[in-house]
Amino acid sequence: MDTRFLESLVAVAELGSMAAAARQLGVTPAALAQRIRALEAELGVLLITRAGRTVVPTEAGIAIVERGREVLRGVQEMRGLAAGDDLAGEFRLGAISTALTGFLPSGLKRFIRAAPRVDLYVVPGTSVELYRKVGDDELDAAVVIHPQFVLPKACNWHLLREEPLVLLIPKGLAGRDPHDLLRTEPFIRYDRNHWGGRLADLYLRRAGIRPQERLELDALDAIAVMVSEGLGISLVPDWAPPWPEGISVEKIALPDPVPSRQVGVLWMRSSKRDRLVRALIDSLGEPKGAAAQTRPAAELVPAGK
Fold it and tell me: At what angle do helices 18-25 and 3-15 cross, to 10 degrees?
């Protein structure tokens, strides 16, 4: 079987279009259709069919696509081994949004320079989603928040950043006690479905504070904008810049003990991509605390000042 035919089927299934798949693979639509027909003739089954304006795999096609992805990854591995380069092949990386817009792009730039033969595929998502995908072998590694439970021994973890919780307030409220603000001002909660949101909830419960909740949001950028508009205050991790431009907020340090959101790389100990993961970690640099980062949108103000 010609692996190019298999690659063509996978591309069509993922993109839902013969024309889009042909552009991605750098062939004509006619050549792509010929590859699919040749594969169908070899296997003796219909692999794709039309559904309105899109092309979808048949039941047999779905099964072949799922297995085909594994075969193609294996072929890429063998090419890397044949070239004497184990920093090659497909690498599937998940990442939370604040990493994707913050420190990850510069690190990925260094990683690609160090491993130019790697075919990098980046998947955005929440920590909960990406944790599951790493465990299910849908991803080779993920930049996520450390969960509030002990990771299984089958997992590897490397810390990249410590992001302490801070009180985010509109300009003009600084100078008051942070806990007094949390008890009296309208509160915008960071979604408790996120591990960072659960960390904020844990802080409030330990401090015995029941805030006056107004909103609950799952996007940190949106929370910052809402606070800037005077809709309330919030407890958020001091995430890596950039922050939204043009906002008018202040970040207030909280009384100790202050929990921190730990951002790091998660991967399985049994992963065949261990060398690639460690090369990525080298490219991302040493662990950093949020206090060491540049904050273009707001500076951290000590409590009571």
Answer: 130
Whole-model pTM?
0.69
266 shares a domain with 241 = no
- Are both 157 and 271 inside the same structural domain? yes
Give the span between the Cα atoms of 285 and 282, in whole angstroms: 5
Same domain, 7 and 63: yes
Question: Contact, 173 vs 304, CB < 8 A?
Answer: no
pLDDT digits over 154-206, tens only? 999 999 999 999 999 998 888 899 999 999 999 999 999 888 899 999 999 99
Residue 48 parent element (H or E): strand 48-51
Q: How far apart are CA 45 and CA 301, in angstroms?
A: 66
Per this entry, what is the length of the chain?
Answer: 305
Q: Looking at 59, 81, 103, which one is the last position of a domain?
A: 81
Residue 237 forms beta bridges with which residues? 165
